[in-house]
TrEMBL record:
Keyword field: Signal
One Gene Ontology cellular component: membrane
Species in which this protein is naturally found: Daucus carota subsp. sativus (Carrot)
Upper classification of the organism: Eukaryota, Viridiplantae, Streptophyta, Embryophyta, Tracheophyta
Protein name: Malectin-like domain-containing protein
Membrane-topology annotation of the record: Single-pass membrane protein
Pfam family for this entry, one: Malectin_like
Amino acid sequence: MEKAKWIFLAFLAMQLLSSFSQEPDTSRWLSIDCGADGLPFDDDLIIWDTDDGYIQSGLNELVRTKTSRNELNTLRAFPDKAVEHCYNVSAVTQTIRYIIRLGFYYGNYDGLSKPPRFDLFINHVKWTTVDTSINNGLPFYEEIIYQNEKSGSFKICLVQIKDGGVPLINSIETMVVFDELYPEMDTSATYSLVTRTNLGGPEVRYHIDTDEMYNRIWSKDATPYTRVTGFPDFNTYENNPPITILEDAIVANGSDPITLIVNLPQSTQQSAYIVLYLTNLGNPFDSNQTTTLKFEINSQDQGTVNSTGNGKTTVVAKYPVTVSGPTINITLSLADEFSLPPMISAMEVFTKWDTGPSKSTAAAEFFSFAYSLILLCMLVLVSAGPDTSRWQSIDCGSERSWEDRLLTWRSDYDYSQTGWNKLVGTNTTRDEFNTLRAFPNGSKDDCYNVPIDADMVRYIIRVGFYYGNYDGLSKPPTFDLFINNKKWTTINTSLNEGEPFYEEIIYPNKGSEFFKICLVQIQDGGIPFINSIETVGIFHTLYYEMDTNATYNLVTRINFGGPEVRYHPLTDERFNRIWSKGYTTYANVSGLPTIYAATSSNYPPESVMADAIESNASDPITLTIDLPQFTPQSAFIVLYIPQLVYTNKPNQTRSLKIEIDGKDQGTADTIGYNENTVVTKYPVTVSGPTINITLSRVNESSLPPMIAAMEVFTKLDMNVSAAAPEYFSFACSLILLFMLLSVA
């Protein structure tokens, strides 16, 4: 018997090692502590972000009666009577399911002892009416399984109702789920969680000591049945129930049935999804133990269930089951007199929404007549807003996420697993440049994995660098930059007189779901670092003359005659490009470009086309561009030529001769006042150290040369292939195999 005991313990140890070798993919989890003022905090190895980067309205408040959950002790309240207050919560830009969980706890934060009621919406569809007085005033959650349709974000709104009081929210959590979870569900439908209960043990959440893979919460339930504890077999079962809930169960007395009562939030007829986790925790050495149970829901026969011995778990999913409130009654009873009494570890119940995640007429109620007029004016001034759902902005080295010009800058915690956060010694006006991540260890894993939309064929990728003497050594480093295992360039951070600078490319995506951007030390180069990463999905209509399978390096993008132009809610820059201020000796000219400036080739923003430089009389305009490489290259050059000077003289024309490095490139004519001409030259063979572009007046032109902006790219010799994720380490596999063999 003693020998059998040790064999059994060794078996358990091996199964436990196997079970905990799997780690959840927390990179696809987002946890937001609504109303928090401080920095993000770590709880159970989950980073809780503050919510100021996700919403612009509301007030931060503290509850008066605290709970053991830090994220529920703060809240954001919305006292102003605006129609809606919405969170824009980032999501991956692909069709995939999410668990979305919102936490609510009034906690008498306002001292009025009047818990509010309000409506909750997601993407303009009503989710539910939240009544914060339920659950005896204690914290509670609203949770759904929701399919994201490549939108890149969720819009979660809290809406006041008549006499309902002030809406509030304490927490928002989102977790990506994969196809193996709840496989019987319709993946295009939305399901509300009614209950997820650990019947025989305490509440179970994700923690380093548990194997909960999806950040689910298994609530404790008080039942009149006997609690038993045993040794589950540590196998992986449908829906990946954690071992910690399978090692406890409730058991009926003798031949008595187990009846579980589930309260439904709605009394109308609904379609339910019910999952039971039946673990046999009897004698693990008796392989002949079996239990055959009769399964009923609201007295309707659902068939029988067989549960075998040896600590095995049987997962029973019933869907669809038509139910009506106020309760569901689930009964497990003996099917024959020879079976062991009923035993169950856990249960989940969902109800299916009768509306999918499509727009509803309720959304129309969110817009007042005045607001519609404002939108109309904005549409007239800016013909179409940018699709920012395809933009990503990552602030490397930042402790928290934040928002600037309606752009959400995300902390880089979820994108890189190595390196150290640092602050620059000399700040700049750009917040994202005042932090950086440095990589002193020179690891091959000094990389960022940046998720993207696999359906987008091209991306603008911009990476920012600013040394700022962060280490106090006054030694700006030099290092190599790679993308998807191909060398992009060598970064010399002493360039640009020590000021911030960018490296930007237009990069083709061949069905990959991420970009891998790596920083690699070179001999005597110093410690690599990075300040920012930005990606923007672009369409074929932008720079359509480019080869869509090639990579192009941005040499310069200049706004002549005006200031630097970036994306801003009041500009019409649609692709988050940066038009740098150009310094020349020519006269600046301002005017009113056509209202359709942003519909010209490559969509130049109106604020760029409103300013230009003009030469004197018959003088040419000569533009000199420094090239980063001196070898022959293929250049893509775009000139933006407006006509900003009005004249009532007949036969006034502006015709330009274009030369690049002394070679004739033809002529360009401006059509008339308030019109734009976009000239693209590609391919143009150039060699460093400079490109010289000359615009001169042709003989028949009565007006001198004028230009508003210019872009120059060079084609990179980089063969692009889809990057394969490195999911497995060979060394780690060998170690795991050795451990299993040793235990065996």
